[in-house]
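Help: why these numbers?

___
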Amino acid sequence: MLLPGIRIGYVISDSKHHQRILRVKQSADISTSGLNQRAIHLMLERGVMSQQLERNNREFRRRRDVAVVAARKHFPPGTQFRTPQGGLYLWVRFPNQGPTAAELVSNGCSAWSPATLSGMCSSPGRPIRIRYA
């Protein structure tokens, strides 16, 4: 992953599909950030894209490993999770005697986003998502 907060991609298409893809993109949002596009352009132009990817992957792997060690050390017995092979989250399911996600929030856990809170409705009980990136 290059930059987690920057959502830029590209499409290679034939002329038959180009206009349709363009219309769909323009209907989804007004435009992609010019600053983000320029940053990616400079990385490509200077040939540092692969170096940055390697550096980021090492750092995200290190952070993942720290999160996994901490989870094994501090979470109650019976907690279930897998070491992720990609992504930026550790998906955890606490045992029945562990706290629910709603209980964690009500007990002062402040690192919750609206997306996480709304996810509790679709996954009630004890699963949580821990961001380590």
User: Anything to note?
Assistant: Confidence is low (pLDDT under 50) at residues 114-122. The helical segments are 15-28, 34-46, 49-74, 101-106, 114-122. Residues 49-74 form the longest helix (26 residues).
